[in-house]
Structures are given as structure tokens and as C-alpha cells.
Amino acid sequence: EESETNVTTRVVLRTRKTNCSKTRAARVRPDYPLTRTTSESEMKLMPPEFFQIDALDLAPRLLGKFMRRDNVVLRITEVEAYRPNDSACHGRFGVTPRTAPVFGPGGHAYVYLCYGLHMMLNIVADKEGVGAAVLIRSCSPVSGMETIQERRGLKTDKPVLLNGPGKVGQALGLSTEWSHHPLYSPGGLELLDGGEDVEKVMVGPRVGIDYALPEHVNALWRFAVADTPWISAPKNTLKPL
């Protein structure tokens, strides 16, 4: 599926011999330590049109971008794409009070409660009415470490702090009330770009979707920054793209 929105940066389409038909490569930013050369003043909000493309195109492009709320800044290191006609996507249920944000225009947040415990942050993709999103699976900390540790209830600077989608939602202090929030508007929860790009991405099947159809269970729609410990388990299913 192709978005009709004009996007300046295209990704390279690569076909793999798997039950999934296609994966895409993209340019991503290298891993950042807690102190970076890029200052927050140099970060810029991504425009709405950045998000309004196929979720499978958007997912790898989100790697290396920054999520900011209050004094907390996280760098996105791992994502999963969820698409229309995808038996693992919440959109498969149609428009309900819970899933309505997924059918909004790309660039908004979709936050849902998982197992009654974890707030899962998704970035809505594509045009309004499509029903697609990208789950933020893992991040690395950039700033606001004390706030992150306090929200997580965990005094560590190890990857266990942010290597899972529920941990990311907790570190950002999110609730379902953040659903529909525009990530391209200043204030609140923002998605920001910082500059540098590399071409080192890992790809693999998504996690925890055994209920889905085999072609969707095996689809290579999980993307992670290579050479970083800030990714979730299982790591051995991720391979270089």
C-alpha cells in the first residue's frame, strides 16, 4: 500500500523469502549515550505528513527519533508495525471506544492498557480511517534520568529500565488519556528529530502475537537499532536488514 502524501525521504524496498512478503530499509540514527552532542534546542518536531504513510514504512523511520514529555527525553530503539488487514492489529476489531484512536490521522498517539498493568504507546500511521499504528517497544534514556527512575520505581541505568513497551509508557508517565494527542504539536508528548543518520537496522518477527494468522506471526515487521543493548527480548530473532 502506498500513501498519497508526498514524503521527501523514500525507503528502499527489499523482498525477503519469508511468509511475510516485504520489509523495508531506512536510515536511522546511531546509538546515543546519556550525554549527546545534539542539544534539545536543535531537535525539531516532525510534521504531520511524516506520519501519514504506511505503518511498515513509518516504523523503521521512527528509529533514532526522540520522544519528549516534561523533562524526559527518550530515543526510540525498537518498534513494531501494525497494519490494515493485519490479524495482530487492534484495527481488526473495527472502530470501538478503545480502538478509535488507531483510525485517526497519522501523527497522533494511541495508548492502551495491556493486562491491566502496562501503558503501551503507539504512534498512529497513515491517513484517517486506515487503522494502522507503530508500537514503541524500547527506548534509551537521553535526559530526565531521575524522573525516569522514579516513574519506573527502579534505580538503575541498565537497559532493563526501558527495554519493553510497558516500561516506555511508564517512564513517560502515560495513561490512556494521551490517546489522540498530536505528537507534532509543541507541548505535552512530542516526537522530535535530532539529525544524524546511519544504515544499521535489525529486523525480525513481532513479539507476543501467537493468536494472529501465521503470515502475520512470521512477518518481519519488528525493527531495532543495531549495536545497542536497549532492545527487548527475544533478541535472537532479530537479524541485520
Describe what you observe in this structure.
The chain is an alpha+beta fold. The protein has a single domain, classed as 3-methyladenine DNA Glycosylase, Chain A. Residues 1-37 have low confidence and may be disordered. The chain has 5 helices and 12 strands. Strands 3, 4, 5, 6, 7, 8, 9, 10, 11 and 12 form a 10-stranded antiparallel β-sheet that branches. Strands 1-2 form a two-stranded antiparallel sheet. The chain has helices at residues 48-51, 55-62, 145-152, 165-171, 214-217, and strands at 12-15, 22-25, 44-45, 66-69, 72-82, 109-114, 118-125, 132-143, 189-193, 201-204, 222-225, 239-240. It catalyses: Hydrolysis of alkylated DNA, releasing 3-methyladenine, 3-methylguanine, 7-methylguanine and 7-methyladenine. It is an enzyme of class 3 (hydrolase).
Find the structural class using helix and strand composition: alpha+beta
CATH topology: 3-methyladenine DNA Glycosylase, Chain A
Uncertain parts: 1-37
Number of strands: 12
Shape, per Cα inertia axes: globular
Distance between the termini: 21 Å
Function: Hydrolysis of the deoxyribose N-glycosidic bond to excise 3-methyladenine, and 7-methylguanine from the damaged DNA polymer formed by alkylation lesions.
Keywords: DNA damage, DNA repair, Hydrolase
Catalytic activity: Hydrolysis of alkylated DNA, releasing 3-methyladenine, 3-methylguanine, 7-methylguanine and 7-methyladenine
Enzyme class: hydrolase
